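Colleagues,

For the teaching module next term, I've prepared a clean inverse folding example: a structure given as tokens, and then the sequence designed for it. I'd like students to try predicting residues themselves before seeing the answer, so please don't circulate the second half yet.
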């Protein structure tokens, strides 16, 4: 047992505990000696690998029992490797402290570096205090670009911390969703070799879907929110005109009407012209809104957009500029 412990890296106490739990076969008895073979060493390595991947001893016992009854661990370990392996093709890099300072405009902010280490953006290299491992060079490049644009380093790390919390929530929801509808059939029992292989194949197929969905929705949200920010800080009519030229959805100008009862295209036939008090929309605008919300929701969408614009301008008019309209108390 001492020799087995030496070759496996496990302690004698751990080996005895594994034997008591039935995880490790009993040794062969030769006279007064217990003989352990390569199969015992291989089994200890299997247990260590599964523990590193987060399996409990109870679940490892089920998997090993499946292996011993001929079902095999190859498919299960393939599934584990598929899930726990890299989810990105990006390769890690290295950077020195001096290179890091040059990358960020010559700044040497120890607090920001420590925050980056805590977040895992930088990883200290043992024995090399002036060198860091960079798990995601793309993430570091984004930080460098933001800093070059004027964003303080601590603001960048703070934003990343918040972003990770939100993204982890999204990842958790995606996993809950796929588990409920796709993977539950494999989870109520130790999977067979075929089931594990099927699950691994599904992971490979579904893995890019989360990224694709996030990319599409982030692009949509950025366009929507960026337009709102522009309208807030620039002339709304100028922003709308630019958006229209790009084929974006326009909103009705609140200065031209107090309310919208019905929205119709400008080239609509006579029998569907707007009633008195309605607003005529350019055909391009009408078609864009119709494609966005559906024909039955055009009027409600335009009315809501107009109402929001009216409220925004009303609130702007109520804001008192610093030093203006104030009297000494």
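(Answer key — instructors only)
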């Amino acid at each position: 047992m001492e020799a087995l412990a030496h070759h496996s890296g496990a302690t004698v106490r751990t080996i005895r505990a594994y034997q008591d739990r039935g995880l490790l076969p009993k040794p062969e008895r030769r006279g007064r000696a217990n003989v352990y073979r390569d199969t015992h060493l291989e089994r200890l390595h299997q247990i260590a690998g599964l523990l590193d991947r987060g399996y409990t001893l109870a679940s490892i016992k089920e998997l090993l029992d499946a292996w011993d009854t001929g079902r095999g661990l190859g498919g299960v370990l393939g599934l584990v490797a598929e899930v726990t392996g890299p989810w990105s093709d990006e390769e890690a890099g290295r950077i020195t402290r001096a290179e890091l300072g040059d990358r960020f405009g010559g700044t040497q902010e120890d607090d920001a570096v420590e925050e980056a280490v805590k977040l895992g953006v930088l990883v200290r290299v043992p024995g090399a205090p002036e060198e860091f491992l960079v798990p995601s060079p793309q993430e570091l490049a984004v930080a460098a670009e933001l800093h070059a644009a004027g964003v303080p380093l601590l603001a960048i790390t703070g934003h990343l911390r918040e972003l990770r919390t939100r993204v982890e929530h999204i990842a958790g929801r995606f996993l809950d969703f796929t588990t409920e509808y796709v993977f539950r059939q494999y989870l109520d029992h130790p999977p067979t070799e075929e089931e594990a292989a099927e699950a691994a194949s599904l992971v490979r197929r579904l893995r890019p879907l989360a990224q694709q969905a996030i990319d599409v929705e982030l692009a949509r949200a950025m366009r929507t929110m960026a337009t709102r920010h522009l309208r807030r800080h620039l002339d709304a009519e100028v922003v709308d005109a630019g958006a229209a030229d790009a084929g974006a959805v326009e909103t009705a100008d609140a200065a031209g009407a107090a309310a919208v009862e019905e929205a119709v295209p400008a080239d609509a036939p006579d029998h569907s012209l707007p009633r008195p008090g309605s607003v005529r929309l350019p055909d391009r605008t009408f078609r864009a809104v119709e494609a966005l919300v559906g024909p039955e929701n055009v009027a409600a969408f335009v009315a809501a957009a107009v109402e929001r614009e009216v409220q925004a301008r009303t609130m702007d008019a109520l804001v008192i500029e610093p030093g203006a309209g104030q009297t000494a108390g």
